[in-house]
Amino acid sequence: MPTLSEIRDPFPEMDCRPWPRRLIAAPAWRALVEKLAAGELSLLGLWGEAACVHMAVLEPSPYSVVVASLAAEDGGFPSVGRRHPPAIRLERAIHDLFGLRAVDALDDRPWLDHGRWPVRAPLGAKIPALASPPAYAFLPSVGQGLSQIPVGPVHAGIIEPGHFRFTTGGETLVRLEARLGYTHKGVEGLMAGATLDHAAKLAARCSGDSTVAYSLAFAQAVEAAQGLAPPPRAVWIRALMAELERIANHLGDFGAICNDAAFALMLAHCSVLREHVLRACASCFGHRLMMDAIVPGGVRVDGAEHAEIILRGLVATIRLALPQLAALYDNTASLQDRTVGAGILKPELARRFACGGFVGRASGRSFDARRDLAYAPYDKLSFDVPVLQEGDVNARVWIRIREIEQSLCLIDQILTETPSGDSYAETATPQAGEGLAIVEGFRGDILVWTRVGSDGAVERCHLRDPSWFQWPLLEAVVEGNIVADFPLCNKSFNCSYSGHDL
Amino acid sequence: MRDILLQGFLRSPLTEPRPAADDSELAALSAQLKRGVDKTFGRSLAIRHVDAGSCNACELEIHALNNPFYDLERFGLKFVASPRHADVLLVTGPVTRNMREALERTYAATPAPKWVVASGACAIDGGFYRESYACVGAAADVIPVDLHIPGCPPEPIMLVKGLLALLCPEPANLSILTVPHPS
Ligand code: SF4
Predict the structure, then answer these.
(1) Rounded Cα gap, residues A125 and A323, in angstroms
(2) CATH number of the domain bearing residue B121
(3) What pLDDT score does B44 carry?
(4) Stretch A381-390: mean pLDDT, rounded?
(5) What DSSP character marks residue A209?
(6) From the CA of B54, how far away is ligand 1's center (Å)?
(7) Are residues B51 and A278, on separate chains, in Cβ contact within 8 Å?
(8) Recorded GO terms, molecular function (chain A) (predicted)?
(9) How far apart are CA B103 and CA A154, in angstroms?
(10) B81 in a structural domain
């Protein structure tokens, strides 16, 4: 098997920053796939264009990112998913959007395309749609006494749409198969040709709960593409917003997971804390979720004059309340009875899928883009990345609690160390280029790759949500659990539908 | 747990006062309504939320309606799990083509009389996704809509006002909401 440098060196390097992109040939592509299958590399992303496919992989110790591109021959490329299952759904999406086929793929069913769009391959050949949408072939489950429960796309709660097909033997889940794509809005299609301002707004709305993280990833990718650096103050304010977003979401999840175990008291208390965070964000940055605050070039809102007082007060409030709630969680036997040992994700699977965020870290995968790819200002901040091995719902709750504590410390440091100065710099003349960014959102690492034209408009942009590598694992995790524990397992994963479906 | 419960007793409630009858946003929403909820409906509505392809920020703020600050149930408004139990459909998102049929079927499954509220820029006119191959656009292009609540996402207080306007289309009638409010 060739070493990674052999894959790297002979091939022409495209100007993608900060990680160059190599145009490789099919044998080198296959060699990369073998390395993924052997667990030597992790898959960060796999995406298409009209006539080629791109793959980003993560090389461990020290972490570095390799991006490879392969020209599609006869509308196809060697399947990655055949040897490395995390790529399967990504390949299905590439086929739906660009019409490029993964040759020898294990699963060639459509994924995002439900047969309802006016065209097939809308970002590629634009083939007219079929007259009527074909039925979706769910995986068969055969066995005595098995029954099926179809759920969704409209669910019982206030949540996003998706379809779950449960196969049960009595109360026990034998198989779960998810069908997603219901919220596919065609974001990457809308991005192509959009001005940077407009594209930033689209990026901010890929997954509303991660609006700050997506805006940050998009801004970093554009700045890398254009070879620009935002003013130092902007970099710090961005991190401040990112940590506030992380805390707000973790608090919401902590309450909601307990609520799904019928412990509503925790939801009430956590939702009060969450509301405090959102109100503080609104007073400091003008929007409760801080939507559209981060843009290429800096931040649109510098933070209100009294921001530091408000945020220090907020940190104190959460510091006071959180230990009490954590103790309540830990001491409530009825709650522990539901969360401990439920929905176990094996560390091996988390590693194989390079699954990010609290899902990966609760199953022993110690990766955090803030620490391991050390983008500014995290290279100057000190924080821990909590990791647990158990991989159950309980571990995913504790990772969230510990991450809230870490984020509070980060906010303290950021408030003390943020430099003064401008927080936004106008781009003088638009620069063409290609950039890649990987940013740690609350649910894991978000990847954004973009190519900006010389007119300053986006030519192509790909945004990969952490949920791509978490949704398939939810299916593995619920196996053998009872049906009633599915909501609990699902909430503890809290994958994004919109971020995934795009 | 005892300490937390005790603190809850001693602390004054966090709940926001209900919007005043002369609130301008409330008045604007009421004026927009062609058809408010009939008085005979009493003062209580069951709401079914349908995400027709939103970015999920709209859902976060709808969730906030149930937190102790907004406490929507004090107005007699509550979220239900099935369209068959609902009086109101609260629709978010730019109605993706993949969700269109689900939205139509949810509407059909809701017993009449029923009201539809399109919440957020996306549901109002497709928002940023209007031009996409994957979206229909406005919720009103798919099912009849009675009220639009603006925002991206609408803040919880705006949602409260919108739903109150539905309940009492004449702002002056807001006084019928004899909801005890902690002062
Ligand atoms: S209105 Fe705004 S917040 Fe709501 S779904 Fe649309 S983009 Fe998201």
Answers:
(1) 56
(2) 3.40.50.12280
(3) 85
(4) 97
(5) G
(6) 6
(7) no
(8) NAD binding; oxidoreductase activity, acting on NAD(P)H; quinone binding
(9) 8
(10) yes
CA pair distance A449, B169, nearest whole angstrom: 49
Give the max Cα distance, chain A. 70
What's the A402 CA to ligand 1 centre distance in angstroms?
Answer: 30
| Interchain pair A291, B99: CB under 8 A | no
Q: Given this model, what pLDDT does residue A92 score?
A: 98
Residues A202, B128: C-beta atoms closer than 8 Å: yes
Looking at domain A4-128, which CATH architecture does it have?
2-Layer Sandwich (3.30)
Mean pLDDT confidence for A47-53:
95
- pLDDT surpasses 70 at A1: no
Q: Is A197 exposed, middle or buried (0-12, 13-18, 19+ CB in 10 A)?
A: exposed
For chain A, give every domain's residue range. 4-128, 197-465
- The two three-digit tokens of residue A323, written as one number: 């230990």
Select from B122, B124, B136 the residue to mutate for testing ligand 1; criterion: most ligand atoms less than 8 Å from CB.
B122
**Residues A7-35, mean pLDDT to the nearest whole number:** 86
Task: Yes or no: say if A242 and A435 are a contact pair by the CB < 8 Å rule.
Answer: no
DSSP letters of B142-168? TS---EEE-SSSPPHHHHHHHHHHHH-
Range of weakest confidence among A112-116, A201-205, A240-244, B35-39: B35-39
For B106, name the nearest residue in chain A, comparing CA atoms only.
A154
Question: Quick check: CB of B122 below 6 Å from ligand 1?
Answer: yes
Residue matched to tokens 């990833």? A217
Task: Decide if A131 contacts A107 (C-beta within 8 A).
Answer: no
Calculate the CA dihedral of residues A92, B93, B80, A265 and round it to 10 degrees.
80
Domain with B119, as residue range(s), is: 39-170
B5 is a domain residue: no
As a whole number of angstroms, the distance between CA A322 and CA A340 comes to 20
The answer to whether B104 faces chain A, any CB pair under 8 Å, is: no
Listed in sequence order, the residues at least 6 apart from B137 whose beta carbon sits closer than 8 Å to its beta carbon are: B94, B95, B125, B126, B129, B130
Q: For every one of its 183 residues, what pLDDT tens digit does chain B have, with 9 covering 90 and above? A: 888 888 888 888 888 888 877 788 887 787 777 676 766 666 789 999 999 999 999 999 999 999 999 999 998 899 999 999 999 999 999 999 999 999 999 999 999 989 999 999 999 999 999 999 999 999 999 999 999 999 999 999 999 999 988 887 665 544 444 333 433
Residues of B in contact with A198 (CB under 8 A): 128
Check if B149 contacts A (Cβ < 8 Å). Answer: no
CB of B50 closer than 6 A to ligand 1? no
Residues in chain B within 8 Å Cβ distance of A157: 81
Cα(B66) to centroid(ligand 1), Å: 19
Strands A119-120 and A64-71: unpaired
A264 pLDDT higher than 90: yes
| B65 occurs within a structural domain | yes
Residues of A in contact with B83 (CB under 8 A): 154
Ligand 1 atom closest to residue A208's alpha carbon, by position in its atom list:
8
Residue at A34: amino acid letter? E
Q: Could you tell me the fold of the domain covering A197-465? A: Cytochrome-c3 Hydrogenase; chain B (1.10.645)
> Is B96–A185 a contact, with Cβ atoms under 8 angstroms apart?
yes
Atom index in ligand 1 nearest the CA of residue B58 equals: 4
What DSSP state is assigned to residue A459? E
Instruction: Provide the number of structural domains found in chain B.
Output: 1
Which residue of B11, B96, B163 to mutate against A (max A Cβ within 10 Å)? B96
